Amino acid sequence: MTAVAAPAIRVRGVTKSYGDLEVLRGVDLDVAAGSVVALLGSNGAGKTTLVRILATLAGADGGRAEVLGHDVAADADGGRRTISLTGQFAAVDDVLTGRENLELVARLRHLADPAGVAERLLARFSLTDAADRRAGTYSGGMRRRLDIAMGLVGDPPVVVLDEPTTGLDPQSRIEVWQVVRGLVRDGTTVLLTTQYLEEAEQLADRIAILHGGTIVHHGTLAELRALLPPTTVTYVEKQPSLEEVFLAVVGPGSTGTPDPTDQEEVR
Hints:
The chain has 267 residues and is an alpha/beta fold. Helix content is 32%, strand content 23%.
């Protein structure tokens, strides 16, 4: 018999409370190596709490969480070496250039060639032309691409993206989707938390729905759709959405030139 590969992320019975508030009530979740799992849930469902536990930024009250076999409670250092977390807000230094941001992270990770690491990531994320501009002049999509690139310094095999497209315009959101697809092509395991159902449909191999502190359903999009009664076929005239019109006018790959008046002044 062929051995079944262990999941890159394994969560069993994880609980977490803040005072009398039970946020996680026994979460079970597997993320297969080299796949994208989208963790869906409304605000306050506990998505970020679970992410913080996996990234060793918070401790679980009960249960067990592993990343590539490392128990994140008992072997926190091992867990940190295998996982990268990109939070809801870009951890980019606006005063530094894109290149300087990447080189700084490489030095903090004690890598041998910070300049070379930065150069490769700038090329990988299509930021070479903006490499020597201050990050504060970047568009939202460029900042988020730089933020994800910073999380990939050192080539972590597991990446957690916590609501990576919150607040982004349609073009910038598509840029981030392209980044995620590229990560998976390179063999990276991705856990993606999101409130956007379309994002999960576009990117995820499997989808987990977190509600009431537990995973209430987990499966492929087809499996989740099968939970509903059979659909009735009707014929309607489909009008293009405003987003489709917008992208048709400006082009999905166009990043445009940032308007200086849209950038917050860096003091």
